[in-house]
Amino acid sequence: MLAPQPLYQIIYHSLATGSEGISPEGLAELLRQARAYNQDHRLTGLLLYADRTKEFVQVLEGPRDEVEHIYQKIAPDPRHKHAFVLHQGLADYRMFPDWRMGFARAATQDLRATTGYFPLQAEPEYARPPGLTVHAPEKLRRFLADFAIPLAKDE
């Protein structure tokens, strides 16, 4: 019998490809696939999407080999680009234990405030220069959970 693996998390940010981002139908199919896969592989998590800027933030959590395996499949997926890991590492608990893949739409400013992300491309209305600052891992996890739990659904 295999020993249980420690809990592992990856939190990443990416941009949807295409001039319009991901369609509602495409998003629904992505979530259907993710939830089915995650249920079969002991994974849980959260997907946030900001329509205006086509930004994703996703939390993946579960056994390390499963999390790393699915992220290696997700990173090159043509539905998004510029995947950047904000945090990865061992975790003491699941942030979203009851969600195969929770989902919420997020306003761009909420997404960026929650993750500590600043755009990688200059934007006229954005006061800060392009770049990235990331909250300390525990603060990032807590912000994401506090932001998402009242909004997200896993259905």
Keywords summarizing the entry:
155 residues, alpha+beta, globular
Tell me what the structure shows.
The chain is of the alpha+beta class and 155 residues long. The chain is built from four helices and five strands, in the order E-H-E-E-H-E-E-H-H. It has a five-stranded mixed beta sheet, sandwiched between helices. It is globular and about 45 Å long. The protein starts with 6 loop residues before the first strand and ends in a 7-residue tail after the last helix. About 11% of the residues have low confidence.
Furnish the topology, listing elements before pairings.
Elements: E1 7-16, H1 24-40, E2 44-50, E3 55-63, H2 64-74, E4 80-90, E5 102-105, H3 108-115, H4 137-148
Parallel strand pairs: 2-5
Antiparallel strand pairs: 1-3, 1-4, 2-3
Which stretches of 5+ consecutive residues score pLDDT under 50? 120-136
| Share in helix | 25-40%
Number of helices: 4
Instruction: Give the biggest beta sheet.
Output: 5 strands, mixed
Strand order of the largest sheet: 4-1-3-2-5
Mean pLDDT across all residues, rounded? 80
Instruction: Find the count of extended strands (DSSP E, 2+ residues).
Output: 5
Quote the distance from N terminus to C terminus. 33 Å
